[in-house]
Amino acid sequence: MTATRPDDTARPSAIGHPAVGRWAAQAKTLQRGLLCALLWILVAELSLHFAIEGLGMSLIWPANGVALGAVLAYGPAMIPALALGVAAWHGWHGIGALESLIGIGALVLALLLAWAALRLFYPRIQSHNPLLRTASFHLLAVLPASAVLALLGSWQFLLLDTPAWADFEVMILMALSQVFGLLMFGRATQLSLNALKHRAYPWRRLLDRQTLLWCGLFVSFGLLAHVADRANLGSAEAMRYLFLGLVAWAAFAARPLLAHWATAAASVTMVALAPNYPAANAYALTWIIDQTVLLIFLAAVGFLVSAVMAQRRLLERALRRSAHTDPVTGRLNEAGLLEHLRRSAPHPDLLGVEACNLSQIEDRFDLALARSVERDISIALGQLAPNGSQISRMKEGFFVLCLQPSWASKGLVEGIQQALDGKRYAVAGESTRLQLAIGRLDDDGQPLPPEQRLALLAQATHVGWNGSTAATRNPARPENLLRLRRQQLECLDHLRELLRQPQEGATAGLWLACQPIQRALREQEEAGAEVLLRWTLPDGSPMSPAEFFPMAERHGLAAALDRWVLTEAAAQVRPLAQQRNKNWKLSVNLSGASVSDPGLFDDIVAAIAASDLSPRQWCFEITETAGIAQRPQAVELFQRLRQHGASTALDDFGTGLATFDYLKALEADYLKIDGSFVREIETSRVDQQIVRSICEVCKTMRLLTIAECVERESQKHLLAAYGVDFVQGFGIARPRPLRAHVQQLLAT
User: Exposed, middle or buried by CB within 10 Å (0-12, 13-18, 19+), for 665?
Assistant: First the structure.
């Protein structure tokens, strides 16, 4: 729905009333044409003060320059009105019809030629180089128009009785006059009319300090030269050359519009302060040529310096933009982000998004894929972030969102995680998935410099604090973030040390627990157990797998954890090799990082051999989300495991939006129904229908089902009625140390 502006109801719409729109456009064109014609008449009248004695022309003739600027600004629709204005001025001064017709025809032809040349050729040769643009404009507009006016327009003066001037002298004077007028006033008029049309230069910007200073110096020099001329001090001619410096300074420091009008004003002043014009004799033409060459030189200096300075400003902006812009994503880099934070008031909340495994992607694949991943992150953040937020790529793999205090909501964090975390990238038959860490830093009113705030945001991202961790108090404070990061680094170092050594105690350091799995239709008959990884810190406090495993994934330790679990599980269940129950199975979870490891299958085969259990007593589980992210690797791994004799299972089914076609391609032996469909199955008809449908499909595909998170007997009986084969949860058995469970099995 398009918002209506307040003034839309006050006047008819041009879209709704085409006739009204056309009449309004024509009236506006007529109004502009009349104003341009009046401006031409006024300028032509003022130019008569610089008339050449014995010839009805003026050395300074900016009127045609004004006409050229009007046509270039408003189009050839101005030409008829200008022609009428010229005719009216000629009639006012008693110029003959033939002479007037020649002058009008020459002006109309010159204007059409200049407009057509610029329309056809200027866009083709236009570039970002102001020098080339300036040269192209004068070559395509000023020179052709001056040539037409000199060749055709001079005939109106040749028809007059001018015995003191030869024909070639009249043409030379006409050419110099027109070149001067078009060169000095054509571009200046066009820029002024464009500024009025687009309202690009409001008065508060035009009357800035720089413009007022230039005008003050110009008036001061002009008054001094005028006083010197009136007092016959002989220094008026010398002082007028000071205007060369003023023009150069204006072109050096001012915007193009002011530079062009400064050049025009200085040139007119220099002619007004010129020495006395000699009579029409042998020296008259030389005097005129000297003055016009000086003025053309003045214009060349002004335009050249103005173009050079425009080029310099473009280069400075380009360098500044490149210095503050990231070349990979086009976002702000660290320098641009710091400048944005310094200028922002109040301080925005910061959200850090880091691709934790970007260096691993770059090492395993190539730099091109890593850069493609970063561009995907930039695009996704741009789509998810609220309008008005600033996104920057602070460093490789680390993005910062500057948000208003109310924008850094939990929904935004979840949206970023759903869109990017676990996203799969495939290259040449291999694939990997993106791992994200998100941190949030709110503005708590502390007067911290931007550099320190970004450093704290990096710490918040590393510790994974996004505003939802309840176990920490005031985590955004510097000392708390540093403390959390220090604790995390200590935990990582301790974890790496634990992975280098076998398990020492039953429940110390890293240790294995297990949760039994029972048949749904038979009481107290254990079909197997799932291995669970646990970590007890040196102070005796446990660390949840939901906390340490994502940290291990972000720092590339997930695959090492899986190998440690395989090795320890094989060693601890080895006593069961002599047990008569050969149907008991041990289930081991595999992470997505391990699934993408080509050496995982050999490690599994080695662990099975070390356990002395048969391969059919091992079952390997892959979560649905990890399997989807690594689909080709998961399918290949499951096929090889089944060929070796081991069983396979798809864990957490229903949480990753996997299709049954994917389940068919995976060829798993077991499907574990996620606990989110089991907890409320007694009261939720939707969960009941989902579980019933999953069981029906699995029976058709000859898959066995395992329901997780079973806590009550009523749940177990209902699941058995729906066709679930196995159950697992606190209502069946709570987790216990694997070593103790093995001893219990041996005792029974």
Answer: middle
